[in-house]
Amino acid sequence: MASAFVGKASQGPARSCMLAWRVHKFGPPEAMVLESVPRPDPGPGEVLVDVHAAGVGPWDGWIRAGKSALPQPLPLTLGSDLSGTVAAVGSGISEMAIGDQVFGVTNAQFLGAYAEYAVASAGMLAKKPGSLSYAEAASVPVVAVTAWQGLFDHARLEAGQTVVIHGAAGNVGAYAVQLARRARLRSIATAGTKDIQYVRSLGADTVLDYHTQRFEDEVKDVDAVLDLVGGETQMRSFQVLRPGGKLISAVSQPDQHRAKYHGVTAAFFLVEVTTERLRTIAELIDRGELKSCVGAVLPLTEAREAHMMLEGRLIPPKGKIVLNIETAGEGVETAAAAVRAGLPAAPVRKGS
Ligand SMILES: NC(=O)c1ccc[n+]([C@@H]2O[C@H](COP(=O)([O-])OP(=O)(O)OC[C@H]3O[C@@H](n4cnc5c(N)ncnc54)[C@H](OP(=O)(O)O)[C@@H]3O)[C@@H](O)[C@H]2O)c1
Q1: What is the CATH number of the domain that holds 248?
Q2: Please, what's the b/e burial string for 219-244 (b: 16 or more CB within 10 A of its CB; e: otherwise)?
Q3: Is residue 155 part of a domain?
């Protein structure tokens, strides 16, 4: 498919290869390989993004390990959340042009963003919030839209209603607490001891310490539970709902027998990132009504370390892990040369 293409001014002629983190065989972070691969071309309805930053999330770890709910063909390039500039447009694109600053997700397979360039579906991108750096913008899409959809599309909560948010100190939870406050919901959040003050600062009405308190002893008859933890926490959540209440999980499919027994509805959902939802989130961010939280910014060459953080093998930060990607700097050229020579790549650092 033919596409218009422009390289960075400082880059000279368009390069045909790029660095990308690939998986040829599912496994631990050691299964990730930084390779020089052909730069992809955008197809109809797609754009090529000159990636400035890519977000790292738990779902990237599941894809790498072969444990994703979505079937993933091998070999694959990891990564879905991204920010950057449009470098080329495929056919049928009228609302985006070369040079636009964008953020969003690559595609419904959640693949392709840990690379210098990524093809993304235009319907999963929007204009980058002007108030955010590229690194901050790449931290937003999946987690913020998940929080939005959980509260408003799936739990269908309205002002004055009460929601329990499990995992409120996490990346999705932090957005859910802020969005709940803005929508004038009453929120009861669960978090660990170290995070109680943080979650209060995000605007939760009540924060329960999951280490020392059993939420089902403190709460009852709520309109909805947003489950960002799963397992036993999800199972115990049925008893805090009012009849007709909703248990909405972003983690796993809730037990339907239990739901029937308690007279509630219970559902798992997969996030659907769209331009419209991203625009809504971007507006809230630019108006100062929603804050992003970046915990660690690593160079592209340290994506493996980022996955070790996901697994707790390295100390995980509070907030999103983001990969910072230099597309025109000497760092990547050096890393690319090392990769071509079969040597370990040196860290690539850039400002966002
Ligand atoms: N379905 C979808 O489309 C979708 C989209 C995005 C995310 N997700 C999933 O949603 C979940 C949350 O994602 P995330 O990015 O927010 O993860 P995260 O940043 O790792 O946050 C998880 C939070 O849950 C807390 N937590 C652990 N056990 C808890 C408990 N028993 N009670 C209350 N809080 C507890 C953790 O605190 P500690 O530090 O104390 O452990 C942490 O703050 C993940 O499973 C993720 O894969 C699904």
Answers
A1: 3.90.180.10
A2: beebbbbbbbbbeebbeebbebbbee
A3: yes
Same domain as 136, residue 19:
yes
Instruction: Report which secondary-structure segment, H or E, holds 22.
Output: strand 17-23
pTM reported for the whole predicted model? 0.92
pLDDT number for residue 71: 87
| Protein residue with least CA distance to atom 40, ligand 1 | 192
Whether 261 and 313 map to the same domain: the answer is no
Q: Residue 330 pLDDT > 50, yes or no?
A: no
Find the 81 Cα to ligand 1 centroid distance in Å. Answer: 17
Query: Which ligand 1 atom is at minimum distance from the Cα of 269?
Result: 1
Query: Which residues constitute the domain of residue 109?
Result: 4-140+292-340
Asked if residue 245 and residue 147 are part of one domain, the reply reads yes
> For ligand 1, atom 18, which residue shows the shortest CA distance?
170
Segment 322-341 mean pLDDT = 60
Top mutation candidate among 62, 63, 172, 253 for ligand 1, by most atoms within 8 Å of CB = 172
